[in-house]
Design a protein that fits this description.
The protein is mostly beta strands and 148 residues long. It contains 1 helix and 10 strands. A hairpin with a 5-residue loop joins β7 and β8. The longest helix is centred in the last third of the chain and has 4 residues. The radius of gyration is 40 Å and the shape is elongated.
Length: 148
């Protein structure tokens, strides 16, 4: 550790040796910067305020969902495992999707089981048993609106 000693010598502008004074050497701060921090400064009139245990935060309501218009067709999945399966690349896997037939206003809720791209210009593919709740199979493809 290196300590620097500073010697301040002040000379009078007149060059008079009697008016010259030497100041005793004083240690400067440590060169490595390892000096202790200064005490914190507090503003006058500070009061200790305790925060409540539970803080209420208001957040906006979640969006009502995404609505997409397009075409729907059907496919028969061999095993549905108790789901009402459908597939669209527009929603996340596991999303609950409301499909509304725009020709007759009937709707059904299905579970998105795949996000692979669909061929033939379809927006959503619905399991045949679920599709029958909104249209006859011979009507496919049908104009639909999907909401998730």
């Amino acid at each position: 550790m290196i300590t620097v000693l500073a010697v301040i010598v002040s000379l009078a502008s007149g060059g008079d040796s009697e008016s010259d004074e030497a100041v005793a050497p004083t240690p400067a701060s440590d060169v490595t910067g390892a000096s202790s921090p200064a005490d914190p400064a507090f503003l006058p009139g500070t009061e200790v305020v305790e925060a409540p245990e539970i803080i209420t935060v208001n957040v906006p309501a979640p969006p009502t969902g995404t609505v997409i218009s397009g075409r729907a067709s059907f496919i028969r999945w061999p095993q549905t495992l108790g789901l009402a399966p459908c597939a669209t690349p527009h929603a996340l896997i596991g999303a609950r999707i409301t499909v509304t037939n725009l020709n007759n206003a009937r709707s059904v809720v299905c579970d998105n089981v795949s996000i692979e791209s669909l061929g033939d210009g379809n927006t959503i593919i619905i399991h045949s048993d679920v599709f029958l709740e909104i249209a006859d199979l011979v009507d496919a493809p049908i104009p639909v609106e999907i909401q998730f």
